[in-house]
Amino acid sequence: MAKVFAKNLSNKQVMATDGTELGILNNIVMDGKTGELEDLIVKPDIGLDTSKYQKDGQYIIVPFESVSAIKDYIVVDKVLAKGLPYDRQ
Questions:
Q1: Domains assigned to the chain
Q2: pTM assigned to the model
Q3: For the chain, what is the HEC assignment?
């Protein structure tokens, strides 16, 4: 994946590979020791069924490993986006 500046990600739409609009990127979780990006914190679209996603308050948590492209949208694999139970500290 090409380099992308963090400032260009602010408020970017997050979309699944099947065209489902998940919501708007709110924040990114980074491992402070390794610098690896771990998760996207997404404000879900009103019509999105969030029951299959990990949640943190009003936001859904999308593992960064599910990101397949970043252009006009942040495109994520729908299956990987649902991730595993959120247990990061």
A1: 6-81 (2.30.30.240)
A2: 0.86
A3: CCCCCHHHCCCCEEEECCCCEEEEEEEEEECCCCCCEEEEEEEECCCCCHHHCEEECCEEEEEHHHEEEECCCEEECHHHHCCCCCCCC
Calpha distance 69→14 (Å, rounded) = 10
Angstrom distance (rounded) from CA 23 to CA 20: 9
Q: What is the pLDDT of residues 20-41, one digit of tens each?
A: 999 999 999 999 999 999 999 9
Structure tokens at 30: 């980074």
Tokens of 43: 């404000």
Per the CB < 8 A criterion, the answer to whether 28 and 8 are in contact is no
